[in-house]
Write a structure and sequence with these properties.
With 274 residues, the chain is mostly helical. It contains 13 helices and no strands.
């Protein structure tokens, strides 16, 4: 009986303490988003982009107006891009595109996403994946927004990208040459001739095709590529090198030509003295 009474008293005391100490949720006071945005903009204007990004994110969370929240988000993305935090910038832009698909700055966001991808391209010996990803983003933008001011810049970047693809193929072709795998090397060089003939690497690719085909005894193929090189780039160093391969008397001809030039010049000087 005493034990039962003790138990009832214990329950009563516990309930009383719980009621007295009951936690009441009080929402935190919302900060003034305009003040936060101004603070972010001030940091942005003095190139303190990391702090600006944090403040723009904070402003986004506090704005009630969706267009101002969206503007804060895209400003935060650019701030991250400005300090080369490309992965974080990409994540931020993708979040913006998901949350604010009807915002007026969507076109700019797609442009910035393509630029962020472009900035992550490394030298030709590295992975091909960033190149392909960048091409995908640039092509998407140019197909969807071809007449915008941003399209001009991305067209220029696409041309540079083509050079990177060609450089990659040439790098691989040279590797195959170094291990004497002639057919894979020829195939890589033919890809440059077919797909990247407006790049700066087309001349060297044609010369390498002359060089390899001549080396393995395919004189007809060597002459074919030399003709293409000569027709289109007859003043280039690569044509001169190809000509040397196919014409063993090249050095003799050049020497004779230089001697004739010297004699001609000497005669002119004598005439002037006379």
């Amino acid at each position: 009986m005493c034990l039962r009474i003790f138990f009832l008293i214990l329950v009563f005391v516990f309930n009383s303490c719980t009621k007295n100490n009951e936690m009441v949720y009080e929402p935190s006071t919302k900060k003034n988003p305009y003040e936060i945005y101004k603070e972010a903009l001030d940091a942005f204007n003095i190139n303190d982009f990391f702090y600006a990004s944090e403040k723009f994110n904070e402003a986004e969370l506090n704005f009630d107006k969706i267009e101002l929240a969206a503007k804060s988000s895209i400003m935060s993305s650019y701030s991250l891009y400005a300090i080369n935090l490309y992965e974080e910038a990409e994540q931020n832009i993708n979040r913006y595109l998901k949350n604010y698909p009807a915002d007026k700055n969507v076109i700019y966001a797609h442009y910035l996403l393509a630029v962020v991808q472009f900035e992550q391209i490394k030298a030709e010996q590295y992975d091909l994946k960033p190149l392909l990803k960048t091409k995908e983003k640039i092509d998407f933008f140019l197909n969807r927004y071809p007449d915008t001011e941003y399209a001009i810049d991305l067209k220029f970047k696409k041309a540079l990208l083509q050079n990177q693809f060609a450089a990659k193929e040439l790098y691989v072709a040279k590797h195959y040459v170094s291990v004497q795998k002639w057919i894979p090397a020829i195939n890589r060089l033919k890809l440059i001739v077919k797909n990247y003939n407006e790049t700066i690497f087309i001349e060297e690719a044609l010369h390498r095709l002359v060089e390899i085909n001549y080396h393995i005894g395919l004189d007809g193929e060597a002459k074919k590529y030399a003709s293409i090189l000569g027709y289109n780039y007859n003043s280039s160093k690569w044509y001169e090198r190809s000509y040397k391969i196919l014409n063993k008397d090249y050095k003799k001809i050049i020497k004779n030509y230089e001697k004739k030039e010297e004699k001609g010049l000497f005669r002119k000087i004598i005439k002037m003295i006379k």
